[in-house]
Design brief:
With 195 residues, this protein is mainly alpha-helical. It has a single domain, classed as Arp2/3 complex 21 kDa subunit ARPC3. 65% of the residues lie in helices and 2% in strands. It contains 7 helices and 2 strands. Helix 3 runs antiparallel to helix 4. The radius of gyration is 17 Å and the shape is globular. The N and C termini lie close together (7 Å).
């Protein structure tokens, strides 16, 4: 007998968990912790203050799996806890006085946007999920790169070369991972619910 509570009303993966304050809190805190954990997968680059991290993969997965409200809250918890001193930003950093803080702001907006898209079925097929993940990436970089330009007192073109160009290939790989993982998770849930 299956304990998965999926039906026609399940709009995002997190909806398969029976709704309760405790469950929603666990999902939000768990998603924030996932992004914090993936932030520690960090490869510093000598020419930019922005390291390569796994954070954006966490944002894509959490945003799409949780739906816009829970995802926005989870990313907000991640950012606020880090600003308050929890050292779970990249390279065990915390606070807000960093050139890369624009990425964190982008995580909140992108997580919510991905959740909204997922609630409309964008995470059900690989092709739609890939497009959705690219949208999330564009949101993050559209906020992060101008922030980086202001923080470093450099031109927008220089900020693009420091905060976008070195990450394009890696971001496509992370988008592909999330774009395959989410529809695969839906297939597993659908199989379990049909038993």
């Amino acid at each position: 007998m299956s304990t998965i509570a999926i039906g026609t009303r399940s709009r995002v993966l997190a909806d398969v968990v029976p709704a309760s304050l405790l469950a929603n809190t666990a999902l939000v805190v768990g998603a924030a912790a996932l992004v914090g954990l993936l932030a520690q997968v960090s490869i510093p680059l000598g020419f930019t203050p922005v390291p390569i991290t796994g954070q954006t993969l966490g944002v894509m997965l959490a945003g799409s799996a949780l739906g816009w409200r829970r995802a926005g809250l989870a990313m907000s918890v991640y950012v606020i806890a880090g600003m308050a001193g929890l050292p779970w930003f990249a390279n065990h950093a915390s606070g807000y006085a960093m050139a890369s803080f624009g990425y964190l702001v982008g995580f909140v907006i992108a997580g919510s946007a991905l959740g909204w898209l997922a609630s409309r079925g964008s995470d059900r097929t690989v092709s739609r999920a890939l497009v959705s993940m690219i949208v999330g990436e564009v949101i993050i970089f559209a906020i992060a790169v101008p922030w980086l330009a202001v923080a470093l007192h450099v031109s927008l073109a220089r900020a693009i070369s420091l905060g976008f160009t070195p990450f394009v290939a890696g971001e496509f790989i992370k988008a592909a991972i999330a774009g395959v993982a989410l529809p695969s998770a839906w297939r597993i849930v659908d199989r379990a619910s049909s038993r």
